[in-house]
Amino acid sequence: MTAPLTRRFFLRGAGGAWLALPVLPSLLSPAQARAQAASGARCLVGITTEHGGVWGSNMYPTDATQTDALTYAGRTVRRGTLQSAVSGGRASLSSVLSADSGVFSAALLAKMNVIRGIDIPFNIAHHRAGMWGNTSFNSGSNSDALAAQQWPRPTIDHVLGWSPAFYSSAELAAVKARVLNIYGAWPGAVNKADNSYIWANPSTRSGPIQAASGSDNSLYNFTNLFGSPGTAPPTARRSIITRVKESYDRLRRDTRLSSDDRRRLDEHFARVAELERRINAATPPTCGAVTRPARGSLDVYNAAGAGYGSNPQAHIEFFQLNVDVMVLALSCGLTRVAMLGLSGWSSFSEVPGNDDIFHQSVAHQVHSGQGQPAMVAASQRIFEKVVLYAAAKLNGVSMGDGSTLLDRTLLAWTQEAGNVIHGGLSIPIVTFGGAGGSLKTGQYVDYRNKALNIAPSATGELGQQFYGLLVHQWLGTVLQAMGIARAEYQEPDHGGYGKLFVKAGGDYGAGAHSTAVAYPASVVTACSDMLPFLRP
Amino acid sequence: MRRFCWVGGLLVLMGCEGELRRHTSGPEVDKGQGGGGGGAEEPDEVAPLRYSCPSQAPTRPVLPLQRLTHAQLLETVHSLLGEAGAADATQISAALQPAFDALPEDRRRATPGTRHGGMLRLDQDVTDGHVSAVFDLAIALGRELSRTAARRQALLGSCATDADVANDLTCARNLVRRFGALVWRAPLSDNEVTQALSYLDGAGPVSAEGLADVIGGLFADARFFYRLEWGDPAGSNKLLSAHELAAKLSYALTDAAPDAELRAAADTRALLTEAEYAAQVERLSRTPRAGRTWERLVTDWLQLSEVPSLASSVAQPDFRTMAGPDLPPLGSTQELVDDVLGAFRQTLDRGEGLSGALRNRHSFARGTWLAQVYGVPRWDGASPPPPFPAERGGGLLTRAAFLVSGTAATRPVVKGVRLRTALLCDALGEVPAGALDAKPLMELPPLSSTRAKLKNLTETTAGCSGCHSIAINPLGFLTEGFDPLGRTRSFETVFTADGGTLGTVPVVLPAPARVLLGDGREVVSPEQLLERIDASGKAHSCLAVHVFRHLSLRLEDAEADGCSLSDLERAARAGAPLRDLMQRLVLRADFRERASP
Q1: Does A271 touch chain B (CB under 8 A)?
Q2: Which of A280 and A13 is assigned the larger pLDDT?
Q3: Nearest Cα residue to A27 out of A7, A3, A1, A12
Q4: B288 and B585 Cβ atoms separated by less than 8 Å
Q5: Which one of B127, B199, B307, B405 would you mutate to disrupt binding with A, by most A Cβ within 10 Å of its Cβ?
Q6: Are A96 and A413 in contact (CB under 8 A)?
Q7: Which pTM value belongs to this model?
Q8: How many other CB atoms are there within 10 angstroms of residue B286's CB atom?
Q9: How far is residue B347 CA from its own chain's centroid?
């Protein structure tokens, strides 16, 4: 049995600052820790970055590391065990997946997966939330993308957040945010977020699908989660919110209201009820004394001034401060779902992300000699300084039973595009954590059907495009790993999650295969399964 | 070997094949005749009208309950702080700043045919962030307005602080009636007053804590955040009540709650008469707030939110070399936007129509940097603005906001797309599959003009040239006589990424602008392009539909809204003053009806 820890636990914050966690689960006796963290509770952390277009040779381990094969859904799928090359203090799986070997350790590698061959199966071009279940929010750059705009769906973070199978009513007594969404359309913005979508009335899972709220202002998020000295005392807020709710209830019963107006008020009423729940949620006493960080992400942005755009160190610090708050919230049980969207403003490059400059100068040039190195450098920074940083933080939180918070978590990083810019084929997924044993880890898995090359006559990366399995199956896998039954999320006509809109062919360019060949029935049928090699 | 069109600039979001179409809904596409191919007939210069008023229009789309926008929330709260009468309103505002900061920003909602920009007013989503931020703001307002005896006295009068406790409840009741009517923008019924006072919850009626909760409750109520429309109890259920109409009109024209004069007209129901309503429309549309609302409309219409933030580019070596002594400072982007808005503001104040803004040839640069770029003195905001030098003759098209790129080279595609989709309301086709993977047809020497490079990339393949050669590139080429900061030039300097220079190449301007798609005549200068745009009426039609969206808070239905749109379009083309366009729509009978009956 692990002895109770008695020392204070610290999370090392960005820029050398230390964020004191007066009491984290690691400070508790095992019994206390178990009491604080809901039994078997699993967490999801979804990290999304814009662009993509990192060539496969820069993103993934070599195919030679794939040692096992399996016939699945009419193709051969492959896997291998992740093994990094360590040299000069750097551990590396690929140009992008490389980091300080002191952090990117064998222990973390064993908790990692690199997933290749998950497709958004139509020509989506620009989007922010396709890999989380809503492909309808896209730039409408072509007829397929425009067609997809007809079928909005909530992203799976909110499927989880509002599922009774995920948060028990007892647990909700302490949950401050069903989903913590860290996203700013520009640095520090408090806004609707492009990476996460929700029903207008989430309590009834009805109404139009709209962007969820979010902010990448770390102190704003901290205040929402932990309160602040300026916040009204909870008792006063409780009294008022109750009466506000009563007032809304009276209004929505007024017979003079039109049905459309009543629907809007119903949606608002549901959100007021959720606000009431959050206000009444009791912060676990062990987290009540958390110290407000002295520096927030907006401070980083303001300090960098006009130079922020071309200062990757500032981008790193900006998001590490956000990750610190996120890990703190997960540690304290204030949420179990966190989405982190890195908007294009922070390019993690010397080439500024604002005003489309990185987008045009780098992302759109990834297939020329100019853009790929800069994209690889930016993506490597994101991997090491945000993704791995978050994983390491989560891995540093002991749950008191020999496991860490990372073990209970599925942290997944996805990008906007696959290895070809604007392409939906093989959008990379890098994960850490096994979601409480729901997923096998330590693997490089590859679901591409290498018998079908989309453009065999093309050279370079363009000649290395193969059809994979569907994003619906990836999303279903995540939901199942989080303990959600298929019946709760699947649509009547297919497995997996999300609207089934599969259209290969013309929009992928000449030489592409028909939809029936690219994504045969066996691929659609497979969507009900957890992804091969990941199921324990 | 299969060839793709290689695409640079913003072209990824634009179609380089497919058909150009109008992105506002309407019955007919423009079809200018003739072309550059030597047809005998002179092409039309005026685009057909886009809208018509059907004899039997279908029912208008329903517009469900509208919330206050971010801008309206802030305006409303600040004016209510003034109404609260506190002597230290500045301190109250400062204390409320964190609550203001937490209000979610609205996001521009895309309009048909555009992939950039959009309209802020169309964002009516309500998120958890809105609900909690408005609630927290309400609590903070209650706390701040009742924090000191002086503030309570300012709000309630002497009954708040006198020694007589017997009048305390009446005192609070009067506050709810008076201040509540301002917060809810309508008088409270007796029941509503009682319910508002229930927030006291046993606290003293004029105590700080009791008042804080009562005031907080008023602001946290749906009647503050939403514009509820019940209909006029004394009239048809279809028509708005006087107070509902006052609120709708005031927010439409000024983004603010009704002022005292408008409230008085609502209180007496005089607002429901044609004469008084028209008088209030005229008065409100001449207020400074109405001017700011116009600026928001212009910002959305012309996609001014997309003007690059130049100060962020100064770290790029080639940009620094290009800028030389005119390196953009912080705030330079706002200078660019303000220059455009200044032209519209002057047009508004002069009572001119859109052509006045298009052709305005004065600098509204208040900052040193932009004035230096223009080669004119700074404008002090009061004196007559200085005229542009003669060589900057393109009016709106040659204002720097429409020329800057944020990089060391110009972006003709970006310039062309903006003029085509924003100013003219034309939509572009789809992006061809694989466009960005394609390579240029041939290699050009590095010392080539931006125009030459772009033509090589986009006009040498059938898939791309459709949109680029016809609809996009020429519009961008015609302002190539200005560099990426908006300075005039006859030669283009080509830079290397490390800040070196390769040399210069002459600028070539003439291009078939095709303002009307069938008009292939060559245009030789920005001035001539401006003439063609102004004469075509397309910008006027485009403005008309944006005015409609801005005031109606929704996208148009070409049939159901045909009469409103047609009226606006004809007025705009006939040279109606900008202010008149706003007035025309709010004066219509259907504006005074419930949006969601």
Answers
A1: yes
A2: A280
A3: A7
A4: no
A5: B127
A6: no
A7: 0.87
A8: 13
A9: 16
Under an 8 A CB cutoff, do B209 and A236 touch? Answer: yes
Inter-chain residue contact A190 with B217, CB threshold 8 Å: no
Is A142 in Cβ contact with B430 (below 8 Å)?
yes
Residues 570-589 on B with a CB inside 8 Å of A are: none
Residue B225 φ/ψ, nearest 5 degrees: -75, -30
What's chain B's average pLDDT? Answer: 89
| Residue for token pair 């006052």 | B246
What count of residues does chain B have?
Answer: 597
pLDDT digits (tens, 9 = 90+) for B143-167: 999 999 999 999 998 888 888 888 8
Helix (H, G, I), strand (E, B) or coil at B216: helix
Q: Do A241 and B199 make contact, defined as CB atoms within 8 angstroms? A: no
Q: Is pLDDT above 80 for A233?
A: no
Nearby residues of A184 by Cβ (< 8 Å), 6 or more positions away: A190, A191, A193, A214, A215, A216, A217, A343, A345
| CA proximity to A243, closest of B117, B199, B408 | B199
For the stretch A178-197, pLDDT in tens is: 999 999 999 999 998 999 99
Restricting to B residues 355-414, those with a Cβ less than 8 Å away from any Cβ of A are 406-407
Ranges A259-268, B3-12, B383-392, B423-432: which has the least confidence:
B3-12
Residues of A in contact with B314 (CB under 8 A): 306-307
CA distance B240 to B246: 9
Of residues B136, B212, B406, nearest to A355 (C-beta): B406
Residue A218's nearest CA partner among A304, A292, A308 is A292
Do the chains contact at B217 and A244, CB–CB below 8 Å?
yes
Could you tell me the two tokens for B587?
A: 């004066």
pLDDT of B341 higher than 90: yes
Contacts of B582 (CB under 8 A, 6+ apart): B253, B285, B290, B294, B547, B551
The alpha carbon of residue B30 and the mean position of all alpha carbons in its chain are separated, in whole angstroms, by: 25
Residues 60-99 of B with CB under 8 A from A: 62, 64-65, 98
- The strand pairing partners of B488, in sequence order, are B482
Q: Is B581 exposed, middle or buried (0-12, 13-18, 19+ CB in 10 A)?
A: buried
pLDDT tens readout for residues B399-457: 999 999 988 999 999 999 999 999 999 988 766 666 665 666 678 899 999 999 999 88
- Cβ neighbours of B315 in A, within 8 Å: 307, 309-310, 350, 352
Question: What digits encode the pLDDT tens for the residues A11-62?
Answer: 433 333 334 443 343 333 333 343 344 446 999 999 999 999 999 999 999 9
Q: Which residues in A139-272 belong to E strands, given as ranges?
A: 180-182, 190-201, 206-215
User: What pLDDT score was predicted for residue B127?
Assistant: 93
Tell me, what's the pLDDT at B111? 86
